[in-house]
Write a structure and sequence with these properties.
The chain has 508 residues and is α/β, with parallel strands linked by helices. It has helices at residues 55-74, 77-93, 95-106, 110-130, 169-180, 194-210, 225-233, 246-258, 281-293, 313-324, 345-360, 410-417, 433-440, and strands spanning 19-21, 23-25, 28-30, 35-40, 45-51, 137-139, 146-154, 157-161, 184-188, 218-221, 239-243, 262-266, 271-275, 303-309, 364-367, 382-385, 401-407, 422-423, 425-429, 449-452, 464-465, 468-469, 476-477, 486-494. The strands form 6 sheets. It has a 7-stranded mixed β-sheet with strand order 3-2-10-9-8-11-12, sandwiched between helices. Bound molecules: nicotinamide-adenine-dinucleotide (NAD). Nicotinamide-adenine-dinucleotide (NAD) binds next to helix 7 and helix 8.
């Protein structure tokens, strides 16, 4: 059987075929759930067909994965790091094919697709170094002839549930760290990006096979809410790392906490950029454009709110509207395209609903505001002038819609920045050290990522990534995020022959 279009033939070089089983269970590809199509958002036509997981497939996979965890956690951490290094190399070899797949299945432009795969490769490199630095500590004891130690052990199995917009980077942030920490990984990708889930899993599984390790160490399922729920409920999974909407994340958290499991949440964002009166306006305008329009406004770190100081308000807006009108919209694979399609027809409907809402409340659309008639899910990049107190400003509309508002003082801008339920990312454009340090301080921005003179997006893997409030509080990728993937043991050792607290008691 052949792919529907010749341009998809390259997929066979990354292990994909026109009809593929979507579960990697106990080292084998199989699947007995519903058959679904992977759709290209640029034309809404089928790329390939995938069979999703059934609950029986899930059970078989989880049994094998739990067994495999006994083997994997006993391998010394630097040896686990060596396996992750090989995964990075395998991805490197297929970087361009994988990037292209991301573009045709998710809809992001090609440089973003390639950039996302590169991020997984970078995470592999980061994790290799980390595999030699999972250090514990020695703590001074208050008792004579005693010593306290803190040591770290693997959790066992880590479940990773990912969203459609970063269909492989989020897996990388979690899995690379989870694996070097000694955990097996169970991955459920987004239901609308099954080919990416399968292609990445194939590369990873070949590395385990080459190293004569059980394939079940990395188990993966294509599927939707049913498999996600099974992961949330499963007591064999010590940590569930969930990336997605706040609404679903809350349900997952409650389910995991009911069984006293650990949860790491990476949920919705509603990120603001503040432009102060002393900002470099050219730099700020370019940054806002990329932060608001990139990935068609479907990044968790997309800039959705732009706060402009009243003294430069009109100047900034004029420049911004001008650059918005030059944005090249179209085929995400084509050179020069900046804005590809939204991911699904449903996303396009949500954009339309959002615009109707904006219009019904008489907010002013400065540019954009329409869908583009075509077979794909294309929409115009949109700027709306609005009040910071409007209810719709508090919600994450997952599309390239930017709300702009005016402020007078730094304090007022910070208050507006912090006035939404979400707390992922924020950025200020200013040249004033006073503003910068206040922005970073206790009365500054309340988000997890607090930037200065760069956009809200584009976080580097070396830092801990995540947000506060309704964004869920989790931290992934760099810094000391690895501690979430391990359990901590505090050990006090008595190397004398006295038990200080027992002095004065006669034990006969
Ligand atoms: P979503 O919440 O609809 O789905 C996310 C994942 O959850 C999917 O794999 C889905 O199949 C699964 N799921 C759905 N119902 C479930 C259930 N009942 N139990 C368990 N799993 C279930 O989100 P989406 O539309 O795929 O992604 C967009 C959202 O993700 C946005 O809100 C975005 O901000 C957020 N996001 C956040 C980050 C971050 O790091 N903070 C990163 C990427 C995306």
């Amino acid at each position: 059987m052949e792919f529907a279009k010749q341009e998809y033939e390259f997929l066979s070089e990354i292990g994909l075929s026109p009809e593929t089983p979507g579960c990697f269970v106990n080292g084998k590809w199989k699947a007995h759930g519903p058959t679904v199509s992977s759709i290209n958002p640029a034309n809404n036509q089928k790329i390939a067909t995938v069979v999703e997981a059934s609950l029986e497939d899930y059970e078989e996979g989880m049994k094998a994965c739990s067994e495999a965890s006994k083997i994997w956690m006993e391998l010394p951490a630097p040896k686990r790091g060596e396996v992750v290094r090989q995964i990075g190399d395998a991805l490197r070899e297929k970087l361009h094919h994988l990037g292209r797949l991301l573009s045709i299945e998710m809809g992001k432009i090609l440089p973003e697709g390639i950039g996302e795969v590169q991020e997984v490769i970078d995470m592999c490199d980061f994790a290799v170094g980390l595999s030699r630095q999972l250090n514990g500590s020695v703590i001074p004891s208050e008792r004579p002839n005693h010593m306290m130690l803190e040591t770290w052990n693997p959790l066992g199995v880590v479940g990773v549930i990912t969203a459609f917009n970063f269909p492989c980077a989020v897996l990388g942030w979690n899995a690379c760290i989870a694996l070097v920490c000694g955990n097996c990984v169970v991955w459920k990708g987004a239901p609308t990006t099954p080919l990416i889930t399968i292609a990445i899993t194939k590369l990873v599984s070949e590395v385990f096979e080459r190293n004569k390790l059980p394939g079940a160490i990395f188990t993966s399922f294509c599927g939707g809410a049913e498999i996600g729920q099974a992961i949330a409920k499963d007591p064999r999974i010590s940590l569930v790392s969930f990336t997605g909407s706040t609404k679903v994340g809350l349900m997952v958290q409650q389910t995991v906490h009911q069984r006293f499991g650990k949860c790491l949440l990476e949920l919705s964002g509603n990120n603001a950029i503040i432009i102060m009166d002393d900002a470099d306006i050219k730099l700020a305008v370019r940054s806002v454009l990329f932060a608001a329009v990139g990935t068609a406004g479907q990044r968790c770190t997309t800039c959705r709110r732009l706060l402009i100081h009243e003294s430069i308000y009109q100047t900034v807006l004029d420049q911004l509207v001008d650059v918005y009108k030059q944005v090249k919209i179209g085929d995400p694979l084509e050179k020069g395209t900046l804005l590809g399609p939204l991911h699904t027809p449903e996303s396009r409907k949500n954009f339309e609903k959002g615009i109707e809402n904006i219009k019904s409340q008489a907010w002013k659309i400065l540019t954009g505001g329409s869908v583009i008639e075509s077979e794909g899910n294309f929409v115009q990049p949109t700027i709306v002038e609005i009040s910071p107190t409007a209810d719709i400003v508090k919600e994450e509309l997952f599309a390239p819609v930017l709300y702009v508002m005016k402020f007078q003082t730094f304090e007022e801008a910070v208050k507006i920045n912090n006035s939404v339920p979400q707390g992922l990312s924020s950025s200020i454009f200013t040249r004033s050290p006073e503003n910068i340090f206040k922005w970073l301080g206790p009365h500054g921005s309340d988000t997890g990522i607090v930037n200065v003179n760069i956009p809200t997006n584009g976080a580097e893997i070396g830092g801990a990534f995540g947000g506060e409030k309704a964004t869920g509080g989790g931290r992934e990728a760099g810094s000391d995020s690895w501690k979430q993937y391990m359990r901590r043991s505090t050990c006090t050792i008595n190397y004398g022959n006295e038990l200080p607290l027992a002095q004065g008691i006669n034990f006969g």
